[in-house]
Amino acid sequence: MFDTLADWLWELERTKGSEKYTAVSVNEGYRVCARLPAYFVIPTLLPEENVPRFQGHGIPIWCWSCHNGCALLKMSALPKEQDDSILQVQKSFLDGIYRIIHKPPKELVKTEDLSSNFVSLQDIQTAYAKFKQLFLIDNSTEFWDTDIKWFSLLESSSWLDIIRRCLKKAIEIIECLEAQNMSVLLLEENASDLCCLISSLVQVMMDPHCRTRVGFQSLVQKEWIMGGHCFLDRCNHLRQSDKEEVPVFLLFLDCVWQLVHQHPPAFEFTETYLTVLSDSLYIPIFSTFFFNSPHQKDTNMGRESQETQSKPLNLLTVWDWSVQFEPKAQMLLRNPLYVEKPKLDKGQRKGVRSTHQRQPSLPLTQSKSSPKRGFFREETDHLIKNLLGKRISKLINSSDELQDNFREFYDSWHSKPTDHHGLLLPHIEGPEIKVWAQRYLRWIPEAQILGGGTVATMSKLLEMMEEVQSLQEKIDERHHRQEALQAEAPSLLRNSVRLSSLFPFALLQRHSSKPVLPTSGWKALGDEEDLAKREDEFVDLGDV
């Protein structure tokens, strides 16, 4: 949950980052800043007394450590000032910070300003507003009227393009960490929106632990909950300001879904897991996605408010799935095709590198020569200008060299067999980025495929796995072997010919009269039946 110092120490040990970074409790009781968590990680060489100087702004905060010793960091910008003397103090402060984390030629840090060189929150808000209109269908007639222009409307929303840009940005950062052996410092005004998004995607792609259920939940807790993402404002739970409502976390889940869709065996959880998690985001009964910061959560749940004398809120955590689902239904959240990484015995372990020193999934590009004279000052000026809110005309990461490195890295990885327990990159070409159908189309009967889709494929695969397992048991004569997880899952999917492609949210497809050419004249046929008034067909699935 990352609400204790021990959780951060455990994560540092797991990622082998404890040599260069240390967990601090300087903000315990939120003495320094209400925006930051009580505990977080900073570079070991950074004096703790620097943290409260600007209320936590301008401090590089650790996110994750790579196997080669590089790290992913984030930093919130210093407040904008007009006074030259204050600007000089800020410049001197940032110069000192950067000298601590950037020590060429051994320790290089690349700055990535997400505030001025990436999609904006306004872009995300506008794109999603257009995108969700495609799924607000009242009746069958309206569905077929929009069907003929659906793809052009989808493209004009730019939602899939934003997903592509997010995945591409994450791959660019991975290329710096993995191929160039450079740490990356993410910059944003408050480091609580796009920083959370990109840092989380990088970890999902690079760290197989984050592709397990426990690891993914820990990732959300660390980067989003403790990272200070403003769920109350971004989800607009109180309906106070539509301007602040931006689906950043939903965008993250959509990006993860693209990875799950392209590489199913690499994830312990299913797309159904992501769908119900996205639903929980907008159900304001869970403390997980209800507050703007850990401080706000502790204030409203930890003790009675002294001002209002109101009782503390008693909200549930979203991670206790037994609150929402029965055990059989929870089986749908676990991927039966996922195979854990085999553990080596002591004899095998001797000749193998430890996990954090494993060879990357592709050959590293030729290491760059040490920076030329003046590089440090140039990088420092870039960092300072970005943090002080001044845009610069040409940023480093827009160079042709970066695009060449990205393309070489991307193509090289995809040319080799996929290691589902190693680095994982998505395909980001146009047709590869798809609509998350189970989430967005599940309430539209006309969009469902009876006896088809992913559920049919999964059912056949599980049947094959059962058969292989049965044969293996006969060969090994191990009839006492415990029933595997996949032996339970097919019982829910055994009659896949009768299930919808959007199972488990839709059980049977309703028949719909599809016109040969769906035009506005289709309304003249008088089919104005409201989908909400139709009687549901029922399929007996036991207790599920």
Sequence-ordered SSE layout with sheet pairings:
Layout: H1 5-14, E1 21-24, E2 40-43, E3 61-65, E4 71-76, H2 84-101, E5 109-113, H3 121-133, H4 140-147, H5 150-157, H6 159-178, E6 183-188, H7 194-206, H8 213-225, H9 231-234, H10 248-262, H11 271-281, H12 294-301, H13 327-330, H14 346-349, H15 375-387, H16 400-414, H17 437-440, H18 454-476, H19 490-493
Parallel strand pairs: 4-6, 5-6
Antiparallel strand pairs: 1-2, 3-4
Helix pairs in contact: 3-5, 6-7, 6-10, 7-8, 7-10, 10-11
Describe what you observe in this structure.
The protein is mostly helical. The chain has two domains: 5-341 and 418-441, no CATH class; 446-476. The chain is built from 19 helices and six strands. The strands form two sheets. Strands 3-4-6-5 form a four-stranded mixed beta sheet, sandwiched between helices. Helix 6 (159-178) crosses helix 7 (194-206), helix 7 runs antiparallel to helix 8 (213-225) and helix 10 (248-262) runs antiparallel to helix 11.
What is the overall silhouette? globular
The largest β sheet comes out as: 4 strands, mixed
Instruction: Count the E strands.
Output: 6
**Structural class based on helices, strands and sheet pairing:** mainly alpha
- The domain count comes to 2
Number of helices: 19
Helical proportion, percent range: 25-40%
What fraction of the residues are assigned to beta strands by DSSP?
5-15%
**Element pattern in H and E:** HEEEEHEHHHHEHHHHHHHHHHHHH
Model regions low in confidence, pLDDT < 50 over at least 5 residues: 351-377, 389-398, 482-487, 515-539
Radius of gyration: 25 Å
Going across the biggest sheet, name each strand in turn. 3-4-6-5
Rounded average pLDDT: 82
How far the N terminus sits from the C terminus, by CA atoms, comes to 30 Å
